Amino acid sequence: MLFPDYRPRRLRQNENFRRMIRETRLSVDDLILPLFAVEGKGVKDAIPSMPGHYQLSADHIVKEVKVARDLGIPAVMLFGIPDKKDALATSAYAEDGIVQKTVKTVKDKVADVVVITDVCLCEYTDHGHCGMVEDGTIVNDETLELLARTALSHARAGADMVAPSDMMDGRVSEIREALDDNGFEMTPIMSYAAKYCSAFYYPFRQAAESAPKFGDRRTYQMDPANSLEAIREVSMDVEEAADIIMVKPAMAYLDIIFRVREEIDLPVAAYNVSGEFAMIKAADKLGWLDGNKVMMESLMAIKRAGADMILTYFAKEAAKELGGS
Ligand code: PBG
Q1: How many whole angstroms from its chain centre is CA 156?
Q2: 260: Cβ–Cβ under 8 A, 6 or more apart, which residues?
Q3: 195 assigned to active site
Q4: Is 324 a residue whose pLDDT tops 80?
Q5: How many angstroms does the Cα of residue 184 sit away from the middle of ligand 1?
Q6: pLDDT of 235-270, one tens digit each?
Q7: Exposure pattern of 169-208 as b/e (b: 16+ CB <10 Å)?
C-alpha cells in the first residue's frame, strides 16, 4: 500500500466516511461517576481543585445520582468522609458509617443505578494510611480483616458492588470470603488491581481529607516505573476472583491499560483520577486549551487503550456531549 496508489486521506474526506471507519466508540455506558459523601443535611461544599464537584450530604447525593441516571450513566462510586477518624478506622465498618448510611438512602430513593462503594481505610484512619499502622509500618495481614468487615458492611447496607482501593496483598480473597460467608455471593468485586503511587491523586486527598499524616504510600501502592509488576498484581486479583480489575491512574498509564487488556479476559476499568481532571480544568480556565475537546479526546484515548469502563469526574459532562438526554 504505497502512495500514490493508496491514499489514507480518501476515507477521511467527509464525516460519513470517518464515521464508517471509526474504530473506537465512547458511550455513556462506559462512564462511572465518583461522588464524595459527608454527614449532615443540605451540605454542598465545593472542592476547589475539582470544579463542579462537592462534598455532599445524602440528600444532595440522591439528587446527583438521579441526575447521573437521567443522563444514562449506569453507575456511581461512593467515597465517604467521616466526622470521626481513629487508629482502627472504626467508622469505615460501622453500621451507621457515612458510606453505609448514604448507600442505604440512595438505594431507597433511586432505582436503576449501580452503586459501587470504595473500600479503603485512609479516609477513616487518624494517620491517613490505607492500612493499620504498627511502629510506623503499614501492616498487611492485620488490615485484611478490617477491609473485609468494611466491604461486608457496605454490602449489608445495599451496595451493588464493592471496590477495594487499599493495595494490601490478599484483600480480594479475604473480601470474597466474607461476602460469600454472609450470603453476598452475588456482590461483585471491582478491584483496584494496578494502583500506582501517584502524585495525580492530590486533589482527591483534599476532597476526601485522606492525605497520609506521615510518610507516603510507596510501601503499598505501585512504583510508577513498573509494568510487569502490574500484570502480576492483576493476575493475583484474577486468581482471588475479582470480577472487574482496575488500572489507576489512566492518562499517564495507557500502556498499562493496553497491556492488561491484552493479557486478561476480565472487564477492565480505568480510573481517570482527580489530578488528570484538575489539569484539564485549570488549563481550560486559563484559556490555554479547549477543556471539552480535551476531555472527549482523553476519554476516547483511555477507551482506545483498552478500558471497558472509565471512572471519571467528567462523567456528567461527557454524557451530555455524548447526547444523553
Ligand atoms: C483511597 C483512594 C484514593 C483514590 C481513590 N481511592 C486516594 C489515594 O490512594 O491516596 C484517588 C482517586 C483520585 O485521585 O481521583 N485509597
Answers
A1: 21
A2: 193, 194, 230, 231, 234, 245, 247, 268, 306
A3: yes
A4: no
A5: 26
A6: 999 999 999 999 999 999 999 999 999 999 999 999
A7: eebbbbbbebbeeeebeebbbbbbbbbbebebbebbbbbb
Supply the pLDDT for residue 71: 97
Residue 314 phi/psi, 5-degree rounding, is -85, 0
How remote is the C-alpha of 142 from its chain's centroid?
Answer: 25
Distance CA(312)–CA(299), nearest Å, equals 9
Kindly state the DSSP code that residue 203 receives in the 8-state scheme: H
Kindly list the structural domains of the chain, giving each domain's residue range(s) and its CATH number in brackets, ordered by start.
26-321 (3.20.20.70)
56 DSSP β-pair partners: 37, 44
Give the ligand 1 atom nearest the CA of 167. 16
pTM, two decimals, is: 0.97
User: Any idea how long the chain is?
Assistant: 325
Please give the Cα distance from 306 to 234 (Å, whole number). Answer: 15
Pocket of ligand 1, beta carbon within 6 A: 118, 120, 122, 130, 165, 201, 204-205, 210, 273-274
Mean pLDDT of 205-232: 96
Closest atom of ligand 1 to CA, residue 221: 9
**Grid cell 478490617 in the structure block, residue:** 146
CB neighbours of residue 1 within 10 Å? 6
Q: Which position among 248, 281, 303, 316 bears the catalytic label?
A: 248
Helix segments in the chain, DSSP class H: 15-21, 58-70, 98-109, 141-157, 171-181, 202-207, 228-239, 254-263, 274-285, 291-305, 315-321
Task: To the nearest 10°, report the CA torsion of 210, 41, 314, 106.
Answer: 100
Question: Of 85, 195, 281, 303, which residue is the catalytic one?
Answer: 195
